[in-house]
Amino acid sequence: MSLLSLKSVRAGYGSADIIQGVDLNVVPAETVALLGPNGAGKSTLLKAIAGVARVSSGSVTFDGQSLTALSPAERAAAGVAFLPQDRNVFRTLSVAENLAVSAWGCADAAARIEEVLRLLPNLSALMRKPAGRLSGGQRQMVALAMALMARPRILLVDEPTAGLSPRLVGETLDLLLGLAQAGLGILIVEQNARAALTRVQRALILVDGKVVRSGAASDLAAEPDFGRLFFGEAA
């Protein structure tokens, strides 16, 4: 059974629909990549699922429940965590304070922090450091930890490797893959298509708000003319 299901979704901002009728499914413990050129609508699609962008038509369901009428906070409480690309940590706060903010109002905040540190043990040594003084890769780990504080069932991750070194790109994607193997569903927007396709199970290529190709990651990676496919020229 699908954990997340989109059917004929059109979405955007104001009166403009950037997403033009997208179908998408993610099952538990699966990692799915959204690929495509800049401006294709990939981030808008994640925001539509998270409740940040307007859905004008179609359906978005999570574990069989419609998300359409739910606020972003209600979607997060239901188990949908959105990890944006930018401004995803409080730079003046320490790592520990960032996690505490994410657990605000939770009676078991300390237990949640312990759970996250077991998943991301490298954070333990950084707890007292201001997030703004960390490296880009470390800040991404803090942002991921903040998302995990909600104990989500699915993660929507927007460009987690942007600006990272090639080594950190691989480490970050491997970390997400490990979380999926632990049971999370993960939908990831990623510009480093080749690196993503070696790690995810399935991928969709989005061009001008439409899915032009989808399938097993290994099949898409084996396309002899992947560059043209990526930009929609071979759709």
Describe this structure in words.
β9 and β10 form a beta hairpin. Strands 6-7-8-3-9-10 form a 6-stranded mixed sheet, sandwiched between helices. Strands 2-1-4-5 form a 4-stranded antiparallel sheet, covered by helices on one side. The chain has helices spanning 42-50, 72-78, 95-102, 109-119, 136-148, 166-181, 193-197, 217-221, 226-230; strands spanning 4-13, 16-26, 31-35, 54-62, 65-66, 80-83, 154-158, 185-189, 202-207, 210-216. With 235 residues, the protein is an alpha/beta fold. The protein has 9 helices and 10 strands. The longest helix is centred in the C-terminal third of the chain and has 16 residues, at 166-181.
Give the count of helical stretches: 9
Q: How much β-strand is present in the residues?
A: 25-35%
N-C termini distance: 29 Å
DSSP E strands, number: 10
- Runs in which pLDDT lies below 50 for 5 or more consecutive residues are none
Q: Sketch the topology as an H/E string, one letter per element.
A: EEEHEEHEHHHEHEHEEHH
Strand line-up in the sheet with most strands = 6-7-8-3-9-10
Mean pLDDT across residues: 91
Report the radius of gyration as a whole number of Å: 17 Å
Helical residues, percent? 25-40%
> How would the global form be characterised?
globular
Structural class computed from helices and strand pairing: alpha/beta
Largest sheet: 6 strands, mixed
